Amino acid sequence: MYKPALNDLDAVIAISRRGSFRAAALDLDMSTTALSNAIGKLEAELGVRLFNRTTRSVSLTDAGRLFVEQVSPALQDIHSAVDAVRSQQTTPSGTLRINAFPTAARDIAPLVMAFLHRYPQVHIDLVTEGRLVDIVADGFDIGVRVADLVPSDMISVSLGQPQRFAVVGSPAYFAQHQKPRVPPDLLNLPCIRVRLPNGALYRWRFEKGSQTAQIDVSGPVTLDEASLARTAALDGIGVGFFMEQDVRADIEAGRLIRVLEDWTPPFAGLCLYYPGRRNPSAAHKAFIAMARRHAARQAA
Q1: What is the pLDDT of residue 159?
Q2: Greatest CA span in the chain, whole angstroms?
Q3: Which residue among 152, 271, 283, 284 has its CA within the 20 to 30 Å range from the CA of 168?
Q4: How many Å apart are CA 134 and CA 219, to the nearest integer?
Q5: Within the chain, which residues score under 50 in pLDDT?
Q6: Predicted local distance difference test score (pLDDT) of residue 86
Q7: How far is Cα 241 from Cα 193, in angstroms, rounded to an integer?
Q8: Distance between CA atoms of 246 and 104, rounded to whole angstroms?
Q9: CB-based contacts of 139, cutoff 8 Å, min separation 6
């Protein structure tokens, strides 16, 4: 009698959660072809199709939906049991999956590298994306977001430093355009527009005392990646709106000139966050402990 492997069941859950063989394959660290073959074999052995597949979408069949509803709780119990055993480890090992937006990932990179040097038996899978995700549903151990965006049911660990935005342009740009004194002045200047992960255009947000403003800028280019926007700003294409740490070195070196600094006050800093599991792994506990020490040094 055919008995599906635990990995096969995890594969079904991953595809149903992500709605895509490709995305699920990335989560499972395997090729799309290998994942498709595994599901094909499982469906052949079960005698039913679990997924409807088209060139554009993947969805559960009725049988697949029933299968996921019944298998998912059992899988959670199995993985909880595995976590309970791993929590007894004295030496951290295994994989930690962390989700962060790109700027946050760059901020925590020194922490991640220090952790890997100290615990070489741990593998860290760091996934960067702009959209907010459910880290539990998407199979992550830890998330990294601005404090205000951390879900209320999660345990959070402050990383110590507040964040700021920076509005900048190149010296060549400001040789041809007047520097803005207040946010509405940006409406008369070519700017680098920012597209959010959901497709919407970002309105630049400002605050000074009790005054606030959201400016829907215009300009010659719209970008959704900070490094490309930085290149455009350095090239004098327009004024850019960045996380301060992404352009701090350029400002200090004089490659970019900061404006409207009094309209970009500090705001809530980054946090690690994670669910309150009863049996976190040794690797998870070690990473959180190191993050707390790192935050304490940053705040000192």
Answers
A1: 85
A2: 77
A3: 271
A4: 34
A5: none
A6: 61
A7: 8
A8: 10
A9: 14, 17, 27, 97
